[in-house]
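idk why but the lab printer keeps eating my pages so im just putting this in chat instead. protein + S-adenosylmethionine:
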Amino acid sequence: MLALRIGREKAEELRTKLSELGLLDGQRKIVENKEHVEIPVTGLEGIDLDEWGAKSIEQESPVERAPVYDPHIEIGKKVRIPFELIEHLPSKWEQLGDVVIYKLDERLREHEKEIAKVYAEVLGAKTILEDVGGVEEDIRRPKMRAILGTETVTVHKENGVLFKLDTKRLMFSSGNIDERVRMAKVCKDDDIVVDMFAGIGYFSIPMAVHSNPAEIYSIEINPVAFEYLCENVKLNKVEKKVCPINGDCLEAAPEGLATRVVMGYLRRGELYLPKAMRVIGDKGIIHYHETCPDALLPDRPAFKVHNAAESEGRKVEILKQRRVKSYAPGVSHVVLDISVS
Ligand SMILES: C[S@@+](CC[C@H](N)C(=O)[O-])C[C@H]1O[C@@H](n2cnc3c(N)ncnc32)[C@H](O)[C@@H]1O
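predcted complex ->
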C-alpha cells in the first residue's frame, strides 16, 4: 500500500498537488502524527520526491475509509425498471422536511409511481413532487405535481431554524443556504431590519434566531407566504423580534428607520432600490439580490445601485459582491452589500 511521508508543514500543499494529479488514494485515510503525515497514493508519476522533501513508503497498517453512502446508488439498486432506464433517474433532488422534489425525464414517465416509491423509501420522505418547471412570477409560486402522497406541508430544519411551508405552493431554494447562514450572523445588536421580500421568513427568521437585532419588519405580499411567515415566527419563538406585515413593500415598508435592509427578490431592482434607500435611516446596509448574465458582472448590479442612490440623493459604497449560486446557464444570482449614508 503505497503512501508518501512528508513533514506536517508541507503536507497540505502536497495533498492538493496529488489531488490535482489524480494520485490520491481515496480508499485510505491520511494518517498524521506529531512529526509527519502519510498520504495514501495510487502512483508517483509527476511528483519529484526530493523537491518536496517527501519519502515513498509501504504503509504497514493502512486505515481504510468507510465507504461513502450514496442514496442515488441505493435507489438505482432498489428500483424495478428496465436496466437501460436507470441512468435517467433523477440524480439531483430537493428535500424539504419529508417532501422530495425532482424533475423527471420523460423516458421514465410510465414508471413514475415505482420510482417515487423507491425515492420515498430511501430518502425517508412521505411525498414526492415533480417539478414541472418554472414559477409564477411575482409571488414565486412553483409549478409542482404530486406523484406520491398528498401531504405537501412540511417543516424543514436548517441551521437550527424551522421553516414550515407548503412545498406545492411556495419556493424554498436550497442553493441559497450559504446566504441564509451568512444573514443569520450579519446583524449587529440593536439593528433595525426591514426585510422587504420576507417570503416565509427565509432571512428574517435565521436573523432573529441567531443574532440580536432590536426589531425586524418582515414584509410579504403573497397571503400564502405571509401565513407561513407568521407560523414560522411562532414556531421559532421569535415573536418579540419579528413584526410580519402583509403588503407590497413599496407601500408597506416603513421609511427612515432601518439600519439594515434585505432585498431577497431577484427582479426589478431599479423599481425597489430607490425605496430601499428611503427605508434606510441616517445610514445602514442594504443586502441587494439580483440575477444577472455573467457577461454583465460585476457592473450591471452596481450601476443600478448608483442610479438609485443618485435619484434618492444618497451616498453609497459597495462593500462586497458575492455570487450566491448559478441561476441558469450563463446567469448568476448575486448579492451586494451596500453601505448607504
Ligand atoms: C421567493 S422569496 C425569495 C427567495 C428566498 N430568498 C430563498 O432563499 O428561497 C421572494 C418573496 O418576495 C415576495 N414579494 C414579491 N414582490 C413583493 C413586494 N412588492 N412586496 C413584498 N413582497 C414581495 C414574494 O411573494 C416572495 O415570497
